[in-house]
Amino acid sequence: MGFFKIFVIVLVICAFFIANTYQLQSYEIQALLQLRKHLEYPVQLDVWENYHGDFCSLTSTLHMSITCQDNSVTELKIKGDKLVKLNEFHGFAIPNQTLSEGFSIDSFVTTLTRLSSLKVLTLVSLGIWGPLPDKIHRLASLELLDMSSNFLFGSVPFQMSRLIKLHTLTLDANFFNETFPDWFDSLHNLTILSFKNNRLKGQFPSSMSKITTLTDIVLSHNVLSGKLPDLTALSKLLLLDLRENHLDSELPPLPKGLTTVLLSSNVFTGEIPVEFGTLNQLQHLDLSNNSLSGMLPAGLFSLSSISYLNLASNVLSGSLPSHLNCGGELGFVDISDNRLVGGLPSCLNTISDKRIVKVGGNCLSLDTQYQHSEGYCKQANSDKKQITGKQIALLAGVIGGIVIVVVFLLVVLFIFRRKRHARNMVDKHIPPKVVQNTQPGVPSELLANARVISQVANTGSQGAPSYRVFSLEELLEATENFDQSALLGEGSVGKIYKGRLENGAYIAVRSLNVYKRYSNRNLKLRLDLLSKFRHPHLVSLLGHCIDGGAPDDSTVPRIFLIYEYISNGNFRAHLSGQLCKSFSMSIACILMLG
Ligand SMILES: *[C@@H]1O[C@H](CO)[C@@H](O)[C@H](O)[C@H]1NC(C)=O
Ligand SMILES: *[C@@H]1O[C@H](CO)[C@@H](O)[C@H](O)[C@H]1NC(C)=O
Ligand SMILES: *[C@@H]1O[C@H](CO)[C@@H](O)[C@H](O)[C@H]1NC(C)=O
Ligand SMILES: *[C@@H]1O[C@H](CO)[C@@H](O)[C@H](O)[C@H]1NC(C)=O
């Protein structure tokens, strides 16, 4: 009797399963087999070979799974073993790393789009290479897309903004190298967005601050620059990971629900907002390796959930309050390499297995862990009091203004003089002027100003380069004799080359031809052009070089302006952009005036 009952139950269960077995449409089977071929028969798909059963009932493995609904594939997950081990990828197939040269990402995605009911698509570490085709948007049901650890490059196609059902978009560890996409407004259900380890440039996408469904934003290790916008509208946000970018604003207020905030190795400036001490859910905070200054908000240490607090390698100053409370969960504190003075509060000073505390590289009155002498921190503290960021900007603005006015007056004076001169000596050529290999007639105050501005513009960067005169040999070496491959561009004023100095610093070299004969009109035109000339990659002027030409006066003298070269403009670049303009004008102009 008992046996019979069990038999019936087994029969019923079997019948249930048979009834629920989906017979995949044959064109979808064809598509799957085609995908296997595109992927060059990875071992993970060996089970598909000569398989005559129903693909929908294939046993899932760690590396392959298929789920169906209504005779269609709705989930496809394939994980290969082609890990990305490269730092550079030039867009060509690499044996044993990427799929072969014969792989066409375009045909691959075309085949994929035949699985039109896909909701979940995971294609990880398969060596897929190429720019992601925008027809991927035809997979209109996609809710999860993960193509991490492949060799995708170029831009993230705008058409993907039509995948409005997406809740997870993960494209980690690829080689996307264009501007970061900013079309997230339409993705109303997006919760996880992860683009870590790519080469995406530009600003933090502001459209993201409107997607209130987001829980995870992971954009670490890209080249994002500029400002981090206010994200407080993202009330569901738990994880914000922007490590290793070039973000250089002050820290904005953060949404209250965050548990993990990782902002290390950027260029964030200003003080740590006191409001961070009210992020009650916060467990993990890493602000290390930035340019944060001011006092430590004591509230951070006493947050009820905080367990990891890393504020190392900033320029935080002042002393810690002696009555500081540490939260019960606090297990790791790193405040090393700052400008802190005074004693350590007892909750950080007690030796305990429960809490690791790193405080080296400050000026604390301690015997343990290396400390600087008090002067090191005092100086930093008083320097900062004298010049704050705003004051630097103001000072730079004032100096820039003075330079512009002086240049303007010089130009007016010059033109005026030339006009009179021309009237007196019609048709007589102005005698050629050879620019000497010294700095003839350059007013010393102006050069001094240039130096001040150069330093101001560089405040914050370590070992700020000061203005100097370069030799022609140095430039020839840096640019490999002005090789064509070093040419960055050519403006109406002259050519720009990229170069590398002996010390490894990248520079941009702009050559200006100084014609021996020029009319007023010509000069004015050139100055106009010069003043309009701007280049996003040029940051601050490092110096100049004058090639006086041969003594027999048969060659045209050349002037070179040498700029700091940074491949991604940042806040400082924008600040100094204005200044550069006035520098190059003043210097070019002075040299032309001879
Ligand atoms: C992106 O990478 C590809 C492949 O290396 C390259 O051809 C392309 O020029 C790069 N684009 C940018 C903007 O750097
Ligand atoms: C690629 O891998 C195969 C087998 O693992 C090996 O025989 C071959 O030498 C490798 N080729 C390269 C270029 O590394
Ligand atoms: C977003 O998610 C909600 C709830 O899961 C769902 O009802 C809605 O259809 C989704 N919207 C889109 C555009 O997929
Ligand atoms: C600090 O940040 C810079 C870039 O911002 C990075 O190159 C450097 O490796 C970082 N240092 C540490 C110790 O993380």
How would you portray this structure in words?
The protein has 594 residues and is an alpha/beta fold. It has three domains: 6-178, Ribonuclease Inhibitor (Leucine-rich repeat, LRR (right-handed beta-alpha superhelix)); 268-400, Leucine-rich repeat, LRR (right-handed beta-alpha superhelix); 470-593, Phosphorylase Kinase, domain 1. The chain has helices at 2-19, 26-38, 105-112, 346-349, 374-386, 389-424, 444-458, 472-478, 520-532, 571-593, and strands at residues 64-69, 72-82, 120-126, 129-131, 144-146, 151-154, 168-170, 175-176, 192-194, 201-203, 216-218, 223-226, 239-241, 246-247, 260-262, 284-286, 293-294, 308-310, 315-319, 332-334, 339-342, 356-358, 363-364, 468-469, 487-490, 495-500, 506-513, 538-547, 558-565. It has a 13-stranded mixed beta sheet with strand order 1-2-3-5-7-9-11-13-15-16-18-20-22, with no helix packed on it. Strands 24-28-29-27-26-25 form a six-stranded mixed beta sheet, sandwiched between helices. Strands 17-19-21-23 form a four-stranded parallel beta sheet, covered by helices on one side. A hairpin with a 2-residue loop joins strand 1 (64-69) and strand 2. Helix 6 (389-424) packs parallel to helix 10. It is globular and about 100 Å long. The N and C termini lie far apart (114 Å). Residues 14-21, 422-465, 516-520, 526-538, 550-555 and 569-594 have low confidence and may be disordered. The structure holds 2-acetamido-2-deoxy-beta-D-glucopyranose (4 copies). One 2-acetamido-2-deoxy-beta-D-glucopyranose is lined by residues 164-165, 188-189. This is Protein kinase domain-containing protein. GO terms for molecular function: ATP binding; protein kinase activity. Keywords: Cell membrane, Glycoprotein, Leucine-rich repeat, Membrane, Receptor, Repeat, Signal, Transmembrane, Transmembrane helix.
